[in-house]
Write a structure and sequence with these properties.
Length: 419
Amino acid sequence: MFDIKQIRIFALAAYGKGLSGGDRIFIEFARRWSKNFPVEIYVWKEGAKMLERQHLGIFNSQFSLFNANKDYRNLKVHVSKLKNLCKLGFLFCYLTRIIEGIRLGLSLKLITNHQSPITIYSASEFWMDSLPAFILKLRYPKITWAASWYQTAPNPFHGYLENGQRRNKYFFSSLFYWLMQLPIKPLISSFADYVLVNNEEERKQFSDLNKKGRMIVVLGAVPLEEINKFLITNSKLLTTKEYDAVFQGRLHAQKGVVELIDIWKKVVEIKPLAKLAMIGDGPLMGKVKKRITMNKLTNNIKVFGYVFDGPKKYKIFSKSKIVVHPAFYDSGGMASAEAMAFGLPCVGFNLKAYKSYYPQGMVKVDIGNTNAFAKKIMELLENYSLRIKIGREAKYMIEENWSWEKRANEVLERITTNK
């Protein structure tokens, strides 16, 4: 029995066409929680567009009125009016959203009593999501604050690299990330009622809360019902392979997307007609395309950009033989899990997070060893029976434990029990 009346979600960090893991999680949770309880989401214009693309409802042209999908009548969305301030650049927009988050924390009026308990969920550890939740917790101590901490920033001296070797470690980007998390961590440690993390390794970041049983490990999930419906009506696609491998994820420093081009060049040296499909968008799109051209791989790599959930993306997965996930620094990896639901074996680097995420279905190589990565790709492409065997293990693992319905209910039950 869920002891809850209201859920408030702060997601002002949501940005861009693509979906981060944290964006995906809060959207899928809201989709399911709002079927039974009132859920209110605080976003800005970019976040509102994201919700609309995920079919939770539609906004009017001014983004002032939200009409929820008929299945989510309990869902209400508040869109912060940042006017055109974000046109002045990313940094200015970032600071503006932080100020807006603080304003919301100071101005929102909550009615809290035993008959109307409120759970506040900060969708990310970024300041614009965490600070309003923290301020409301100070103002209303009886509310429950469930704080997301889905990835600990890397050591700024190491950059985006868990260990191993990497030519470009993206020190500046990792330093910014580390500095951003530095003041938020003690606030969460001292005031959050629950902390949601992405894997078992992340429990160590909040040892006191872990001892109190306040840590919740949120392993990823995929839309299994949609995928299975697609496979039932399009089963023939699985026998027609157009791509030797597929990648899905943000084109970000963490994900090893530039190195993936180098890896694929090694594959093409052995298999000249090998084709890679890349699904995703992000800050490294320009570098990825430049690398493809520089290595004369335009006939071997097709960059789709961001592809929304649904038939178009599922067709690409169906027509692929394996999925590659060359992240150098990662806390999970839901993007590759979606492809694994189609029976595709995965190749990835041996990151700590993958011990709990991918105990099977993923062939792992030493971090940074691009030669070994390319060899494993070739091994799976040339050995049909091995590819099918590991692919079945991947599909079985996803079907057993990667349902969004299951994940949303698990988390809801934890964060809404009496403290």
